[in-house]
TrEMBL record:
This is Protein TonB. Pfam families: TonB_C. It is a single-pass membrane protein. PROSITE patterns: TONB_CTD. It comes from Flagellimonas marinaquae.
Amino acid sequence: MEVKRNSMLYFFVGMTLILFMTYLALEWKTYHKNNVWEIGQLTVQESLDEDATILKIKLPDPPQPKIQTPPKIVVAEDDDKVEETFIESNDIDQDTKIAEVESIEVAEDDIPDEIPFILIENAPIFPGCENEKDEAEKRLCFQEQMLKHIRKNFRYPEIAQELGLEGRVSVVFTVQKDGSIGDIRLRGPHESLEKEAARIISKLPALTPGKQRGTPVKVPYSIPITFKLNK
């Protein structure tokens, strides 16, 4: 009875021993000494170069050249009515005829029809100034004679005296190609003063016309006439 009763205990003890021995058998390790793998004999490469990855890319095929169709050549039939035009050369050679001197027309000088008094080569000449030596003296004589003419023919308008009108009238006239006076233009403070200035200029004598390169031209001339009452 005692043996049967303790059989289960003996079974578990035996199983425990068997499992322990199996565990020791599995965990048992054996080390072999080998000097080849000692750390002191290992060589480590200082610089490590990574090999570049080689990629193979397939490029597309080049486009095929376009083959152009050659133009079609059509041969036209001969035209009997075609006439060739011959162009003569205009180059001068030993056979070219030279124009005669008498047939050549000389263009006239391009002289303006009107030139201002200060720019004219030969200014108009006032009667009595013909004997002056040079052009400068003739111009000075012209201006002096103009002032004498104005003082000699000056007359103050009565209506301007009654109204007490004073002022300066700007006068511009043109010595024509024949020496006469024309194209009189006036601007002043009152009509009565302008009329008196026009009357004075209209009494100018005939002048010698101005000339440009020997050709008579029109010459504008300007002068102010001042009206002032004695007070």
